[in-house]
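Case study 2.
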Amino acid sequence: MWELPGGKIEGAEPLEGAGVRELAEETGLHASGATVVTILTDAAQGVPRLTAVIRIAGFTGTLTTAEPHKFTRWEWHDPHALGCLGPVFTPGAQALNTVWPGVIAGLPPVHSYPTANVGPRGSAGCRSAASPPTAASPPGPQAPA
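Prediction:
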């Protein structure tokens, strides 16, 4: 399953700070200019969950798998190609949909969070993955997944 970087807040940590910290812990990228875009809520399988969507203005560093016991790898993809990769963890898919509406077809409504199975590889309308961005050129319409 594909996922975006994320995690939990620590104590009274602001949401933006948690997003920046989790990004660094999981990917080795150090973000700047973090702002909350929106907050999503759900209770998948009876477990309450809050997802804060954080947008960053820039980053430095090199994309690495800093927590290999949790993630196999991180990759950069054109967001329009994400629906071709296979299942995307629903909170991540919904977060992407708040930034790029319609980028992943077939998502359930925001307050219904079954696992998003967004189609097989090679689905019609899928674009190929773009080259990974560098710290000197932050991602445009790309997202690590």
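The CA atoms of residues 107 and 117 lie 8 Å apart.
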